[in-house]
Amino acid sequence: MDVALDGEEADFKARSAQYDAIVLDIMLPKKDGLTLLKEWRQEGIKTHVLMLTARGTLEDKVRGLDSGADDYLTKPFALEELLARLRALIRRGHEVKDPVLRVHDLEIDTATRTVKRGGQAIHLTPREYALLQFLAFHRGRVVSRTMIWEHLYDEHDESTSNVVDVYIRYLRNKIDKGFESPLILTRWGEGYLLRGDDT
Description:
- The chain has helices at residues 7-16, 33-42, 58-66, 79-97, 126-137, 145-153, 160-175; strands spanning 21-25, 48-53, 71-74, 100-103, 106-109, 114-117, 120-122, 184-187, 191-194.
- It is an alpha/beta fold.
- Strand 6 (114-117) and strand 7 (120-122) form a beta hairpin.
- It is elongated, with a radius of gyration of 20 Å.
């Protein structure tokens, strides 16, 4: 995570690195957030931007969104809400970059939200699909139950592990059952992973 203390520094960083998302305050010294955002969009910088402002009027929100913001949050706000919105923007960004995810003989079309394995269509519930897509973005790497829970629910409670295990079981029944090699693997004490190209 990088931090910029004024608009000029923010401008330099946005142009010199690839970010999953940018949290941009409208009221920045040297160069304000709306001006920055308009310039970035005109020059083809497509990074998702979440605007922050102390102004809560509808007119200000419309101006922010019209300038190219993907989401808008009015101060004061809860940190949990900011993080949840950022996760949602990053998920949306993945969908744009990777319309079809391929893992061995599994195909996940993120545009149509359809799944096939070995050419056979597999029907998934929205939550099962979200879980599979999350595992696919991290294929070959272990994701913990907590990471999965936060991706699926954007909140936390004591039943985290049980619920995640149940959904992994549902998914295995649809993705792995009847196929020779399982794709959803367990790493005891760590979490789960979707088999990568070299696993």
